[in-house]
Amino acid sequence: MAFPDPAISSADGAPDIAWHADSAEAAARRLSVDSAIGLTGDDAAARLAKHGPNRLTEMPGKPAWRRFAAQLTEPLVLVLIAAGVITVALGETVDASVIFGVVIVNAIIGYWQEAKAEGALAALARSVATPVTVRRDGHRKHLDAAQLVPGDIVLLNAGDRIPADLRLIQQHEMLTDDSMLTGESQPACKQAGPLPADTLLADRLNMAYAGTTIVAGQGCGLVIATGDATETGRIADLIATAPDMVTPLTRKMDTFSRWLLWAIGGLALLTVAVGLLRGETAFDMFIAAVALAIGAIPEGLPAAVTVTLAIGVARMAKRRAIIRHLPAVETLGSTTVICSDKTGTLTENAMTVRALWGSGQDYVLGGHGYTPDGAISVDGVAASLDEPARECLIAGALCNDASLRHEHGQWKITGDPTEAALIVAARKAELDEHALGTRFPRIDVLPFDACRQFMATAHLGEGEGVIYVKGALERLLPQCVNQLGANGVTAPVEHSAIEAMAHAYAEQGMRVL
């Protein structure tokens, strides 16, 4: 995904400042704040009055009468209105009623759909109320994200949504999901040190941007931009100022309408001319030309097109896609080429465990995304897991900081997508992570680190302690001595067999843990 990459503006309206090039201490001095104490209440109130609430500016919507009037500006609709007026003048009230009825029904359907979409989008915007923890007057305080101001010190934990653009002051093994800005499906590993001034936005690892999510670790950051001044606000501004695009359907309808109007007008003039040459009166020929024009106009076409598009919008709504304007639903059907740069840009950004290998047995796991349903099979035949495979899934579920929940008919995750996929895989084998956590309570953790390339958790087992580890094959396999066999007996680990299986999985495009 390509997007503008300007230096982040100073919160006080000064020339653009490359906050990522400053040290955390220098950034705090720029905003006149002590990061150990935070802003005072009076200072925060003054800055809130100056910069305004930390929310994106809502674009003023069209008045209801303008939205309704916009439904009556199509060429064919204008011709129908003109034909209706002429029909009324000729005393043909029944025909006029039918014509105006079609026009009004068409306008009501279009207006209702647009109003429904506007209401849904407004409801989504109102629902985003993010609570945050800040340091003010030397104490922790819980605020609504709208009350944040430049200079606030925000405390961050796994699962939090970043409420504003931040310059990280401290971080402890913090990973953030920046896919909404960068399209990268893998979490970004953050740091707090300064970076070169020419570092691209996606590589500014000492920054955290509004709308992204922390999937692991913790830290704190200095608010350097809020509301419309954030990178998300810049994108929203670009979207708001983008020109309206003409869809293929509306372009074809306009072309057809113009061609039809010229054809009807030409035939009406020809009819008048032929009649006058034959000696008919001008009034009679005018009446005949009007009747011909009204009869030739396909007054059912706008209604038919509107109804067809409305059906498409309804089908999209069932798939949780909100369509603001009716013609927009047709554009995907006219798409001929889709260009994609990386996984996560057009895909669902969901990880799924597809294969499990233990002691020479290769299991295939079915299912899709984070829904914990799917068969476990061997060579296409349903199979139950042996002890090594079950232990593997138990390790994946316990050496894990993600969570899985069911909300409003959907399965949602908090945390790293790979860890969430391990929880889902365990549930497919009827291994609930909460029950496992009760059975093996965690007493310590060594979080994942890019240098270590593994994560480890210590648990109280049944009569003894146990440590579960997961990580990169090339880092952990050399440390392994024994492996658990299908018969429950340990034997020397078969390094070559494991490496061969990992290579085979990698050739299929899979990530291997």
Task: Tell me the layout of helices and strands.
Blueprint: H1 24-30, H2 41-51, H3 64-70, H4 75-89, H5 93-127, E1 131-136, E2 139-144, E3 153-157, E4 165-177, H6 179-182, E5 188-189, E6 207-208, E7 213-225, H7 231-241, H8 248-277, H9 282-296, H10 300-318, E8 355-358, E9 361-365, E10 376-378, E11 381-382, H11 387-398, E12 403-407, E13 410-414, H12 417-428, H13 433-439, E14 442-446, E15 454-460, E16 465-471, H14 473-476, E17 482-484, E18 490-492, H15 495-507
Helix pairs in contact: 3-5, 4-5, 5-10, 8-9, 11-12
The dominant shape is elongated
Structural class from helices and strands?
alpha+beta
Gyration radius from CA atoms, angstroms:
32 Å
N-C termini distance: 28 Å
Spans where pLDDT lies below 50 across 5 or more residues: 1-15
Helix content: 25-40%
Mean pLDDT across residues? 81
Number of helices: 15
| Biggest beta sheet summary | 7 strands, antiparallel
What is the tally of beta strands?
18
The fraction of residues in strands falls at 15-25%
For the structure shown, list the relevant keywords.
513 residues; seven-stranded antiparallel beta sheet; alpha+beta; 18 strands; disordered N terminus; 15 helices
Write a structural description.
The protein is an alpha+beta fold. Helix content is 39%, strand content 19%. The protein is built from 15 helices and 18 strands. The strands form five sheets. Strands 1, 2, 3, 4, 5, 6 and 7 form a seven-stranded antiparallel beta sheet that branches. Helix 3 packs across helix 5, helix 4 packs antiparallel against helix 5 and helix 11 packs across helix 12 (417-428). It starts with 23 loop residues before the first helix and ends in a 6-residue tail after the last helix.
